[in-house]
């Protein structure tokens, strides 16, 4: 797989049609980086992770014999957290069973009901055989679940019954009525399963509790009006205070950025000033003019099919701790397709909490799951706000870890929430359409079209096979999975049509 690495002091120019001059840091940063850029003390960085080993739960006699094989934690007080997940030692092992948690709101005596944590999360990962996948740091993990500000937790992990045990219980079906064998992600050859006992849980189960930390808002932009300085507009659209509009870089603020933060911001410097909290929106005419200029300014060139550039909250805007991720950026050759996901973190968040949700997922992906960075290239919240995901530049072909087997020459978009049973808000579907109209347009892709990708290996397509996929696909098109949830998946046709209209097709 072609991978282009960009060191923090050598920032790559754009890939493909977004080629531009190499991005440069302000003089204060490039002339004496050690003097101008400082790293905060480790204990001053926002956010934290509590990792608690799980043990046998043998006291629940009402649960029958299987309860003796359950693992978990009894109710306990913990430091405040907002997101929860479970990890284990071997990423090649699946957790076949259920994970349930209940939590207590911070400063209250009120416990939630039991909540299900999505256990099938291995399909969101780097492709097999890549440096990220083979780093030795990757762990098996469930999807993370957003529970809000909490300081108490209880968890139980129950293994799936084996075929013989299910037969004794009077059913030959697996969990949720799924057949015992088949081609889906829950399938396992019958000869590979224990016949007379409950399936074993993975070794080294640990509960991960993530506190996103506070993200102090930067000073309000004096050029912005009062509405822009507010946390959110009446329609729910997030407004990040600070340098949210095009203009000159605040060199004093830039000098206070860490080297990693400066590098993550500088790869967007042809779109927004260094240290900007958002890439500002452009009209369709402005977007087309920018693209034609990037292609050489040939007046005879055909008018491109590209949607207006949407406003994108940068990693600085949502408070990414750039010290967590690997320093290098990795790229592929182009962006031929977009895979739409749901984050499976639940729907109990407000749009003003979206940055906290993102900081929690980011910390979980890196510290708990062992990935190099946030897995998705972009995120869209329930109000349609669009966020920069994995670092490397929003206009570039950044290599993500979102669709196992198809991360090369694609991008991943996570809609924050769970959409198997809940319908995605219209604003979120519109956000996907606007983002794909612009980003796919940069690389000449038709949102209503099809393309070919080479599989890096997965449960639907063997490694090296050439696969025809829709340019805007759901995760389940490349991997047998519930993602992005049936309700969101059913809206992808709407997103394709709207995206093509935004491109002027």
From TrEMBL:
Signal peptide: 1-35
Keyword Iron-sulfur: no
SMART domains, per the entry: PGRP (SM00701)
Region (Disordered): 38-66, 118-196, 209-252
Stretches assigned to the Peptidoglycan recognition protein family domain: 310-458
CDD domains (UniProt xref): PGRP
Key words of the record: Signal
Ranges of Basic and acidic residues composition bias in the record: 153-168
Similarity section: Belongs to the N-acetylmuramoyl-L-alanine amidase 2 family.
Protein name, entry field: Peptidoglycan recognition protein family domain-containing protein
Naturally occurring in which organism (per UniProt): Streptomyces lasiicapitis
């Amino acid at each position: 797989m072609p991978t282009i690495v960009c060191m923090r002091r050598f920032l790559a120019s754009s890939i493909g049609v977004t080629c531009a001059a190499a991005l440069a840091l302000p003089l204060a940063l490039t002339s004496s980086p050690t003097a101008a850029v400082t790293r905060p003390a480790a204990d001053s960085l926002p956010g934290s992770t509590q990792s608690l080993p799980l043990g046998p739960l043998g006291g629940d006699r009402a649960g029958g014999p299987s309860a003796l094989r359950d693992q978990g934690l009894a109710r306990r007080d913990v430091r405040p957290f907002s997101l929860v997940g479970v990890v284990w030692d071997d990423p090649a092992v699946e957790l076949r069973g259920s994970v349930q948690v209940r939590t207590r709101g911070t400063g209250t005596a009120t416990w939630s009901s039991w909540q299900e944590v999505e256990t099938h999360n291995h399909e969101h990962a780097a492709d097999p055989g890549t440096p990220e996948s083979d780093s030795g740091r990757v762990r098996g993990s469930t999807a993370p679940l957003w529970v809000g500000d909490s300081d108490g937790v209880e968890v139980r992990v129950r293994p799936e019954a084996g075929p013989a045990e299910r037969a004794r219980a009077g059913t030959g079906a697996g969990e949720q009525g799924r057949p015992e064998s088949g081609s889906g992600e829950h399938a396992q050859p019958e000869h590979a399963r224990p016949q007379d006992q409950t399936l074993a849980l993975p070794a080294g189960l640990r509960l991960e509790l993530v506190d996103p930390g506070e993200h102090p808002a930067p000073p309000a932009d004096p050029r912005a009006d009062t509405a822009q300085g507010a946390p959110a507009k009446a329609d729910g659209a997030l407004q990040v205070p600070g340098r949210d509009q095009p203009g000159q870089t605040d060199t004093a603020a830039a000098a206070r950025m860490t080297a990693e933060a400066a590098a993550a911001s500088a790869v967007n410097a042809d779109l927004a000033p260094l240290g900007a909290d958002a890439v500002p929106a452009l009209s369709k005419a402005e977007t087309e003019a920018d693209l034609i200029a990037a292609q050489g300014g040939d007046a005879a060139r055909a008018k491109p099919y590209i949607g207006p550039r949407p406003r994108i909250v940068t990693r600085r805007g949502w408070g990414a701790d750039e010290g967590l991720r690997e320093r290098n950026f990795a790229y592929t050759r182009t962006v031929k397709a977009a895979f739409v996901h749901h984050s499976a973190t639940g729907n109990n968040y407000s749009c003003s909490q979206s940055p906290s949700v993102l900081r929690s997922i980011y910390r979980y992906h890196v510290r708990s799951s062992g990935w190099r960075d946030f897995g998705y290239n972009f995120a869209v919240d329930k109000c349609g706000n669009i966020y920069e995901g994995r670092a490397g530049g929003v206009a570039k072909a950044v290599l993500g870890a979102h669709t196992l087997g198809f991360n090369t020459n694609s991008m991943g978009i996570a809609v924050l929430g769970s959409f198997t049973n809940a319908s995605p808000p219209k604003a979120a579907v519109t956000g996907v359409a606007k983002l794909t109209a612009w980003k796919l347009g940069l690389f000449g892709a038709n949102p209503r079209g099809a393309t070919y990708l080479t599989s890096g290996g997965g449960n639907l397509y063997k490694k090296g096979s050439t696969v025809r996929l829709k340019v805007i696909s759901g995760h389940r098109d490349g991997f047998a999975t519930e993602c992005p949830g049936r309700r969101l998946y059913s809206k992808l046709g709407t997103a394709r049509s709207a995206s093509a209209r935004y491109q002027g097709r």
